């Protein structure tokens, strides 16, 4: 197996790497619950992901493997998703009932989110063409080396139970469960600071 090349994505890479993330979530339970139709999924997820993790491109904390085969959008301390834009996307692309359920889910996400200074991983994903090549693991390892050097904890929510073992191998622990109404289960995961 060839060792993947992990680099920091540049702001001009934002649109194409958001597309990689969208492809990665094509069978994700939460993403498809929000937007089941193919056309609306592609458009809604692109816009939602840009609002959710796009700030990583401006902060120099968007890592990519092999120039776009996989991407991890980390938000460092002091950086947050664009919540207002996320809500706008949900309003545009979901029914009123689904929107109300999703707002409860987002409220649950906020309750689990750490209050101390930490790094947050809203999005990590691999183009399905390259699954099984270790790209996600290398993206995690690279980012966590920086996070550990800063002595900070890390946090994420796993929207797909198949990914939990990857996160656990990198030191994350499940700290609860997020679910409301018809939503699939999402697992908040925390990784304590390492020195």
Give structural notes:
With 195 residues, the chain is α+β, with helices and mostly antiparallel strands. The chain has a single domain, classed as Gcn5-related N-acetyltransferase (GNAT) (Aminopeptidase). The chain contains eight helices and seven strands; from the N terminus they run E-H-H-H-H-E-E-H-H-E-H-E-H-E-E. The chain has a seven-stranded mixed beta sheet, sandwiched between helices. A hairpin with a 4-residue loop joins strand 2 and strand 3. It is globular, with a radius of gyration of 16 Å.
Write the layout of secondary structure elements.
Elements: E1 6-8, H1 14-24, H2 29-34, H3 38-53, H4 55-59, E2 62-65, E3 70-75, H5 83-93, H6 96-112, E4 119-126, H7 135-149, E5 154-158, H8 164-169, E6 173-174, E7 187-191
Parallel strand pairs: 4-5
Antiparallel strand pairs: 1-2, 2-3, 3-4, 5-7, 6-7
Helix pairs in contact: 1-3, 3-5
State the distance separating the first and last CA atoms: 31 Å
**Neighbour order of strands in the largest sheet:** 1-2-3-4-5-7-6
Tally the beta strands: 7
- Main sheet attributes: strand count, strand direction, barrel closure: 7 strands, mixed
Strand content: 15-25%
The total of helices stands at 8
Mean pLDDT across all amino acids: 96
Poorly predicted runs are: none
From the coordinates shown, what is the CATH architecture? 3-Layer(aba) Sandwich
Q: Superfamily at the CATH H level?
A: Gcn5-related N-acetyltransferase (GNAT)
Number of domains: 1
The H/E string reads: EHHHHEEHHEHEHEE
Question: What radius of gyration results from the CA coordinates?
Answer: 16 Å
CATH class: Alpha Beta
Give the helix/strand class. Answer: alpha+beta
């Amino acid at each position: 197996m060839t060792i993947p090349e992990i680099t920091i994505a540049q702001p001009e890479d934002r649109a194409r790497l958001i597309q990689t993330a969208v492809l990665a979530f094509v069978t994700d339970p939460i993403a498809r619950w929000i937007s089941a139709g193919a056309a609306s999924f592609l458009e809604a997820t692109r816009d939602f992901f840009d609002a959710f993790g796009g700030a990583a491109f401006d902060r120099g904390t968007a890592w990519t493997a092999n120039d776009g085969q996989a991407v991890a959008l980390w938000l460092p301390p002091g950086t947050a998703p664009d919540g207002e834009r996320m809500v706008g996307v949900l309003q545009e692309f979901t029914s009123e009932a689904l929107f109300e359920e999703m707002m409860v889910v987002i409220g649950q996400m906020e309750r689990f989110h750490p209050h101390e200074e930490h790094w947050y991983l809203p999005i990590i994903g691999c183009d399905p063409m390259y699954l099984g090549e270790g790209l996600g693991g290398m993206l995690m390892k690279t980012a966590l080396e920086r996070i550990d050097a800063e002595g900070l904890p890390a946090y994420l929510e796993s929207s797909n139970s198949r990914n939990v073992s990857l996160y656990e191998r990198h030191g994350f622990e499940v700290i609860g469960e997020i679910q409301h109404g018809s939503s699939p289960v999402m697992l908040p995961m925390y990784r304590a600071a390492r020195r």
